[in-house]
Amino acid sequence: MAAAVTVTPHGTRQKGTSVKICWIGLGNMGLPMAAHLHTAGHDVVGVDLSADARDAAGAAGVRTADAAVTAAAGADAVVTMLPKGAHVRTALLESGALDAAGDNALVLDCSTISCAEAREIGAAVAATGRRFLDAPVSGGTAGAQNATLTFMVGGATADLGAARPLLEAMGTRIFHAGETGAGQSAKMVNNMMLAMNMQSTCEAAVLAERLGITPQTVIDIAGVSTGDSWALRNYYPVAGPVTSAPSNRDFTGGFSVALMRKDLGLALDAAAVHGVDTAATAEVARRLENLIADGRGSLDFSSLIHLVDGTAAAAIGGTR
């Protein structure tokens, strides 16, 4: 039975408590999150396979190590922010990092993986006497940079209590979704809705433009009407009105097409097991695959608009 959902407001981080944190995964999301923990006074040691990512971490004041096992030595907490469940498993269980961490270390996985993988990894962590929470996030790169992320957490209430000072340094909302794996389930459902909201926003944006309605007018009207969504207000897929949106950076530096397609795959797999008709999710997943086939997998997923406006029509045989 899932626990009742609760939310903790931002700003209640305990003062004067510093812990050693091994941070694994210094990408677009991981690096700013790790940097916030460093700024909050924690001893953060980051790890990433990319030399560029390690250099960027150093420039942000986060010291790095060449190997996870080195970074995790004696750590009070180990945090992973990685693309796939297999990466999390390797980073924690096969690298030696988990065994190197403190005997009562708290392991936080902020990646987006399947709930089954979260439960499997959580059980392996618990078998060593350490604690585990799956804590995927929502808010995108802007939320990571501004420490306004939302955390969806699965695991024991007591372990979440221990993790709150760390989570509050990186986000503004913390939801306890239930037992281990529940955080991933909540994130999966959220991303399903985000993907479909983005597809509808892209279609509306292109149609509005061709009808002579400006992007700002669409946002102003739909933003206070029944067409409102986070995608509309924060990620509008046409350059101009939302300065922080990836559309103003040629769709770079956001939540990639490839990662969103991976997340929708998790949702589709879960839906198949539970007998849920997810036709709309499947269609958006197909469109993301078309973008990947067109060489656009590293772009932000709001580049779905390229299929709507015909820019990437070759990837779908000229149909839209």
UniProtKB/TrEMBL annotation:
<feature type="domain" description="3-hydroxyisobutyrate dehydrogenase-like NAD-binding">
    <location>
        <begin position="181"/>
        <end position="307"/>
    </location>
</feature>
<comment type="similarity">
    <text>Belongs to the HIBADH-related family.</text>
</comment>
<dbReference type="InterPro" id="IPR015815">
    <property type="entry name" value="HIBADH-related"/>
</dbReference>
<dbReference type="InterPro" id="IPR036291">
    <property type="entry name" value="NAD(P)-bd_dom_sf"/>
</dbReference>
<dbReference type="InterPro" id="IPR013328">
    <property type="entry name" value="6PGD_dom2"/>
</dbReference>
<keyword id="KW-0560">Oxidoreductase</keyword>
<dbReference type="GO" id="GO:0008442">
    <property type="term" value="F:3-hydroxyisobutyrate dehydrogenase activity"/>
</dbReference>
<dbReference type="InterPro" id="IPR006115">
    <property type="entry name" value="6PGDH_NADP-bd"/>
</dbReference>
<keyword id="KW-0520">NAD</keyword>
<dbReference type="Pfam" id="PF14833">
    <property type="entry name" value="NAD_binding_11"/>
</dbReference>
<feature type="domain" description="6-phosphogluconate dehydrogenase NADP-binding">
    <location>
        <begin position="20"/>
        <end position="178"/>
    </location>
</feature>
<dbReference type="InterPro" id="IPR011548">
    <property type="entry name" value="HIBADH"/>
</dbReference>
<dbReference type="InterPro" id="IPR029154">
    <property type="entry name" value="HIBADH-like_NADP-bd"/>
</dbReference>
<keyword id="KW-0101">Branched-chain amino acid catabolism</keyword>
<protein>
    <submittedName>
        <fullName>3-hydroxyisobutyrate dehydrogenase</fullName>
        <ecNumber>1.1.1.31</ecNumber>
    </submittedName>
</protein>
<dbReference type="Pfam" id="PF03446">
    <property type="entry name" value="NAD_binding_2"/>
</dbReference>
<dbReference type="InterPro" id="IPR008927">
    <property type="entry name" value="6-PGluconate_DH-like_C_sf"/>
</dbReference>
<comment type="pathway">
    <text>Amino-acid degradation.</text>
</comment>
